[in-house]
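Thread amino acids onto this structure.
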């Protein structure tokens, strides 16, 4: 590996509480994403293994000096988005798989808005992760909705950057 420290280890070092929450979110993501395969038996699996690969790719894509400039919440949100960006691939009986696939990034954002409490996220946190996840495909990252967000007590979240990182990692 070409990196010294992983994103997950950085969060663990920076904020033990966020790290503990990530471990809980990981369990939820592993369970949720098992349902993505049913509608898409002939597609690349979008289960947690895929999400873990995205996280691992981000570890080496982002240089350590850039990681050092990210705050703990940016890393937290980036990991959450890496793990759950394909949540919208879960479909229900009768839904058209092609439509699900084409709109899954939008569906993912909606799932975060509606079911944030299932993931141990606040509504505001879920909106941020949902927006980053939506940005992983087919949206204009220069749009105003991707401007920086102030979170909590003046913590800047660079939503455009985080979305671009997830997008870039998936388009390789």
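Threaded sequence (172 positions):
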């Amino acid at each position: 590996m070409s990196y010294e420290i992983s994103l997950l280890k950085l969060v663990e070092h920076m904020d033990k509480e966020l790290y503990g929450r990530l471990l809980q979110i990981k369990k939820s993501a592993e369970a949720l994403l098992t349902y993505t395969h049913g509608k898409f038996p002939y597609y690349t699996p979008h289960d947690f293994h895929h999400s873990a690969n995205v996280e691992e790719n981000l570890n080496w894509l982002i240089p350590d000096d850039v990681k050092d400039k990210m705050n703990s919440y940016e890393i937290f949100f980036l990991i959450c988005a890496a793990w759950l960006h394909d949540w919208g691939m879960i479909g229900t009986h009768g839904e058209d798989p092609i439509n699900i696939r084409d709109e899954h990034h939008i569906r993912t954002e909606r799932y975060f808005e509606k079911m944030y409490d299932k993931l141990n996220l606040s509504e505001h946190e879920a909106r941020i992760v949902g927006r980053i996840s939506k940005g992983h495909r087919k949206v204009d990252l220069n749009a105003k909705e991707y401007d920086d967000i102030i979170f909590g007590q003046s913590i800047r979240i660079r939503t455009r950057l985080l979305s671009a990182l997830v997008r870039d990692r998936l388009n390789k």
